[in-house]
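Side project, low priority. Logging it here so it doesn't get lost.
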Amino acid sequence: MSEVEAKTVPDFTLRNTPLLSRVGADRSDHLRTDVDAAVEGWASAAVLRVDNRGQVLIVDGRVALGGTADLGDTPPDNAVFLGRIDDGRHVWAIRSPLVPPGEAADATVLDIRRTGRVFDDVSAQLVSTATALLNWHDNARFSPVDGAPTRSIKGGWARINPVTGVEEFPRIDPAVICLVHDGADRVVLARQAAWPERMFSLLAGFVEAGESFETCVIREISEEIGIAVRDVRYLGSQPWPFPRSLMVGFHALADPDQEFEFKDGEIAEAHWFTRDEVRAALDVGDWSSAAATESRLLLPGSISIAREIIESWAETD
């Protein structure tokens, strides 16, 4: 039995809820089919605008919400219902050029793929939900069965074929993301071929038909870097609406004596890094802010569940 086979997987959990998994608004799903309630609440509703690049406006750490006065007396066909916020207002989202509310002249344009800590919990939930739904509508305007045009129903949470009555619902593509470690002080980080030098992250991949999450972890790691892992343990999950993924996080144990083999060409290089090396890289920031430094290792930004997993592992003893 090798040393790694004899190890017991350490107690390792996420320190914090991943940023896009935070909950701060009431989804009020019962209102999606209550047309009268939707129309009644529309006049005083708040509107989140998301542009074609997936960007939003923020003011003082909150997503900027406008009014409905310029959008008509009822929700437009492209609007999606997000729920209610603390003051009781309904919140809808639309795909639209960004228009600062009148009192928000200092609003900042933000792409959530590049940051996340500036958001409060309400904003994180609204933006991640709006982005996922609007991306789905952009690509679901025709029936996958017969190609007939579909229309939005249920507050934007479904589309229907008006001829057949068949309903379609938002598609979610599950993907696993896994921190591979040796049960002690080392972790595997990898760089995709398309990434700049020094930019490393965890291994990830989409779940295939007929496959469990755990089986996917084992297969993806074997395909990407050629090593076997065991003791696959669940950590947490996070929506990643770019365009429609759900990232499911794990950690797993591997023998560092195994040779890396880059089988599918997706990974350019992978290395075992010590906990001290990872901590040093975390101290210099994420891979956008730290790119100008001499750090050997650049790590993902805070919006990604990868960052939370890496930070949580780095803080364990």
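Brief comment: The radius of gyration is 22 Å.
Revisit when time allows.
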